[in-house]
Amino acid sequence: MKSISKVSKKGISCGLNKHSRRNFLSNALKITAGLFTLPVTGAFAENTTSDGKKKPVMGPGGKYDILVAGGGIAGVAAAVEAQRAGMKTALIEKTVFTGGLATTGLIYIYLPLCDGRGTQVTYGLSEELLRLSLKYGPGDIPQGWEKGKKGPASPRFRVEFSPASFILALDEFLVAEGVDIWFDTVVCSTIVDGGQVTGLEVENKSGRSALYASCVVDATGEADVAFRAGAPCVETDNKLSMWVIMNSRRAAKKTSMQGSAAERLPVITIGGDNTGRGAPERSKKYRGTNGRDVSEYIIQSRQLLINELKECYAKEGAEKRKEYFPMTLAAMHQMRTTRRIDGLTVIRDHDHSKHIDDSVGMVADWRKKGYVWEVPYPSLLPKKTKNLIVAGRCISNDRDAWEVMRVIPAAAFTGQVAGLAAALAVKNKTSPDALETADVQKALKAKGIPLHIKDII
Ligand SMILES: Cc1cc2nc3c(=O)[nH]c(=O)nc-3n(C[C@H](O)[C@H](O)[C@H](O)COP(=O)(O)OP(=O)(O)OC[C@H]3O[C@@H](n4cnc5c(N)ncnc54)[C@H](O)[C@@H]3O)c2cc1C
Question: What is the DSSP letter of 109?
């Protein structure tokens, strides 16, 4: 059995050392005697590191092929793809919902899978999840796009969904696929042994414990796992903004009149848009990578809504509150970009419309017609870290490219690639960064996913 027992720079390394077997019995006794905080029936336990620090205990069922940290859209896609490849997969999510910003964050627009000129660009789980988002709620696939591939230039192949409905569909989907979901479980540290990620330390109702795996996918949206494993990362600022679902007379009327999903889901947006325009003048910029900043951002963004309501009631009378009020608020901060990996390749602004040899698929620019980006496999790979791959809005991209790669269809797509590559790595007993890109490409092609612009146009 491998000997791991040291404290990494940013996280605690832990696991079974040579004393494990001998200590198992006595640990089991200690557990029975209630000396550990975790009720870990049948778990192996080592309670101290060599320097005397308390070590995390492996929780029940704590060994997986693949661990996915973060159950946003990227994490869901990664977990499903890995499980479909026959891997024992766990999805760890700190809230009680999957979907991340798209559901918990009330971002209800699944941006386009097409290029704005009538050609579908993004395929696979990204399309599967787009269709799934409508299963228990309003919204329709735009006319002409029902079957995908080719459609009208306008409207584009995108949908609007109810976040709550999408959550229900995602629950059902993940359970049917056999993914082991850990809700209400925070990943608090990355377990690293000699540069290799071997597991995650988690905290939940059972207390603190460790989950181990042959490969880990970081789908936290903010590269938390990669950062704590010591991978180089890049941070950026955010202006205040807020999306909220409101009750309003307009919405009530539309509900009975078959309005579009957007009309029936009266989301109002306050504060800065994706360019920062609309944010209150002189408002602070927020990083989102420290607890203080996140808390202040949440309070200040809600204050924007309070101000909006006060203004509205002052203008239209106090009785207006009976008709115009928030139905629900986001249960996570709504910062667009906080931290991403500085990976083996960085997708740059000028990379759109280019052939990229190691592309694993494509994403369309949601703002501009005809702009398509091939996504290089190494943009999902952190530097200096083995057995780890990143998916979603924290892959390695820069400035305008980040604006394209951070949205829902791209998160689903990179999630699928990460899940597939992690599974290939486990099967080949290697790390995702040691895979031949050609093998990843071959596996994606076999799933009907076009890799290059020349394959679709
Ligand atoms: C204001 C705003 C407007 C937007 N508008 C659009 C739009 O109109 N259309 C569009 O397509 N996209 C839009 N986006 C972007 C899009 O919503 C997200 O970037 C995308 O959904 C990201 O998905 P993800 O899975 O990469 O990350 P996230 O959605 O951030 O998911 C990460 C998940 O990981 C979990 N997590 C994080 N840390 C831990 C931890 N330590 N332990 C356990 N779990 C953890 C989180 O709870 C979350 O569920 C918008 C974003 C914002 C903020």
Answer: E
How remote is the CA of residue 104 from the centroid of ligand 1, in Å? 8
Tell me which residue has its CA closest to atom 5 in ligand 1: 107
- Indicate whether residue 40 lines ligand 1 (CB < 6 A): no
Confidence category of residue 210, pLDDT binned at 50, 70, 90: very high
Using pLDDT thresholds of 50, 70 and 90, give the confidence band for residue 268.
confident
Q: Is the CB of 408 under 6 A from ligand 1?
A: yes
Ligand 1, from 97, 220, 237: best to mutate by most atoms within 8 Å of Cβ? 220
Domain range list for the chain: 1-235+337-457, 241-328
Ligand 1 and 426: CB distance under 6 A? no
Distance, CA of 232 to CA of 415 (rounded, Å): 20
Provide the CATH number for the domain formed by 1-235+337-457 in this structure: 3.50.50.60
pTM reported for the whole predicted model = 0.89
**pLDDT tens figures, 413-432:** 999 999 999 999 999 999 99
Which pLDDT belongs to residue 274?
87
Strand 180-182 with 159-160, pairing:
unpaired
Select from 7, 65, 387 the least CA-distant residue to 189: 7
Distance 242 CA to ligand 1 centre (A): 14
Report the separation in Å between the CA atom of 100 and the middle of ligand 1, taken as the mean of its atom positions: 5
| DSSP assignments along 15-30, one per residue | ---TTHHHHHHHHHHH
Measure CA 70 to chain center: 5
The finding on whether 159 has its CB within 6 A of some atom of ligand 1 is: no
* Contact between 225 and 197 (Cβ < 8 Å): yes
Tokens of 440: 């990843």
C-alpha distances out from residue 140 to 123, 262, 407, Å: 18, 11, 20
Residue 32, pLDDT > 50, answer no
- The backbone torsions φ and ψ at residue 343, rounded to the nearest 5 degrees and listed phi first, read -85, -170
pLDDT tens-digit series, residues 347-385: 999 999 999 999 999 999 999 999 999 999 999 999 999
Residue 320: partners with Cβ closer than 8 Å, 6 or more residues away: 312, 313
Buried b (16+ CB within 10 A) or exposed e, 356-384: bebbbbbbbbbeeeebbbbbbbbbbbbbe
